[in-house]
Write a structure and sequence with these properties.
Elements lengths: L1 E6 L6 E7 L2 E5 L1 E4 L11 H6 L5 E4 H6 L3 H7 L2 H5 L5 E4 L2 H7 L3 E4 L2 E5 L6 E4 L1 H11 L3 E3 L11 H24 L9 E6 L5 H12 L5 E4 L8 H11 L9 E3 L5 H9 L4 E4 L1 H4 L5 E4 L2 E4 L19 H5 L2 H9 L3 H27 L3 H11 L5 H6 L3
Parallel strand pairs: 4-14, 5-6, 6-10, 10-11, 11-12, 12-13, 13-14
Antiparallel strand pairs: 1-2, 2-3, 7-8, 8-9, 15-16
Length: 383
């Protein structure tokens, strides 16, 4: 299922290939996020044109709305949303802990209230597997408990114990379920442990003993400073199998992804490309720019010189600024397409650099040029 094709001699960066029922995923890979079975403002056809190889959907949200009866009647998630490529669904664990108004954690799962209508619901390992089997996603995630940051060691220890216990339950349930819309689903475990290195190692080792098809590094990008995020990855990666894919959940800014790849991570997802696009912010090789800036009013150049995305090939900064200032939907769609292209194309360049043995040169040049987003500076650029 996963082939390791090349490794960088100057870092832990890896070139790989993950084969699923709905297609091949070349890694490192960025997965656009389609929480509600749609990547916001972007159609499946456009995702294909962007050369997105895999997209992510959210188990919790789809379970709440439209509901599993709708998904079942549609023949699974791929048919429901019109995407025929690989899909990954998370377990719903993060949303249960971050969105639910009231929840009660037990050894068998979590009782919680729907954030939509307040209905009493329950998700545990069995339910998470049953829902994802019906969804028919190619990669499914074990149900886990994501502790907040910061948290006392005792609380994180409890989360690790439940995460491992639930991973056992997920593997057992997954093996017992009848076939769904997708014949072979790859079950990934999720390593927790917060900022405690010994808990990260313990959680990883206990999950690896389950011999799952892949492993995710969870509990990162939950409010901690970037150095803490990198430390969590560094504390986990050495204990994950070399010949299985590694997935850092919910990350991140372009420079963060490059640094994670240097630390041996293969797969990423993040809402940022489309989220900041809806505020008129675009990614470039030199950092982000605010497309609503007054100095773009007469600018006839593209969002980024040399970019081959649909927006940059066909429209000027002046036009896109006009659309955004006029609250026209096309404006946020064009910036969304540009930002997704930026992320996906960056991963393509990284794979090419790894294949040609020049990733060290590429990553140094990229990180030297890219300037991380500065919220306060960007706000000052508004009219």
């Amino acid at each position: 299922m996963f082939e390791l094709l090349a490794t960088d001699t100057h870092s832990k960066a890896r070139l790989g290939r993950l084969t699923t029922d709905h297609g091949v995923i070349e890694t490192p890979v960025f997965m656009p996020v389609g929480t509600q079975a749609t990547v916001k403002a972007v159609s499946p056809h456009e995702l294909k044109e962007l050369k997105a190889s895999v997209i992510l959907a959210n188990t919790y949200h789809l379970y709440i709305r439209p509901g599993m009866d709708v998904i079942n009647a549609s023949g699974g998630l791929h048919k429901f949303c019109g995407w025929d490529g690989p899909m990954l669904t998370d377990s719903g664990g993060f949303q249960v802990f971050s969105l639910a108004k009231l929840r009660k954690i037990t050894e068998t799962g979590v009782h919680f209230q729907s954030h939509v209508d307040g209905a009493s619901l329950f998700i545990g390992p069995r339910e998470a597997m049953q829902i994802q089997r019906a969804l028919g996603s190619d990669i499914i995630m074990a149900f886990d408990e994501c502790p907040p940051w910061p948290a006392e060691e005792s609380a994180v220890r409890g989360a690790v114990e439940r995460t491992v216990l639930w991973a056992h339950g997920c593997k057992e349930e997954h093996a017992l379920l009848p076939s769904g819309p997708t014949a072979q689903q790859l079950l990934f475990g999720i390593v927790q442990g917060g900022s405690y290195e010994h808990l990260r190692r313990e959680c990883a080792e206990r999950l690896v003993a389950l011999d799952l098809p892949g492993y995710a590094i969870g509990g990162v990008s939950v409010g901690e400073p970037e150095p803490e995020m990198l430390k969590a990855v560094e504390a986990t990666e050495p204990y994950l199998p070399t010949l299985k894919p590694r997935y850092a959940m919910g990350l991140g800014q372009p420079d963060q992804l490059v640094r994670m790849i240097m630390r041996g991570v293969d797969m990423f997802d993040c809402v940022l490309p489309t989220r900041i696009a809806r505020n008129g912010t675009a990614y470039t090789r030199k950092g982000t720019i605010n497309m609503k800036r007054s100095d773009m009013r007469l600018d006839q150049g593209p969002i980024e010189s040399g970019c081959q995305c649909y927006a940059c090939r066909n429209f000027s900064r002046a036009y896109i600024r006009h659309l955004l200032k006029s609250d026209e939907i096309l404006g946020l769609r064009l910036v969304s397409l540009h930002n997704l292209h930026f992320y996906i194309n960056m991963m393509r360049e990284i794979r090419e650099a790894l294949a040609q043995g020049r990733f060290a040169e590429w990553s140094t040049a990229f990180l030297n040029e890219y300037k991380a987003r500065n919220e306060s500076n960007e706000e000052s650029e508004h009219e």
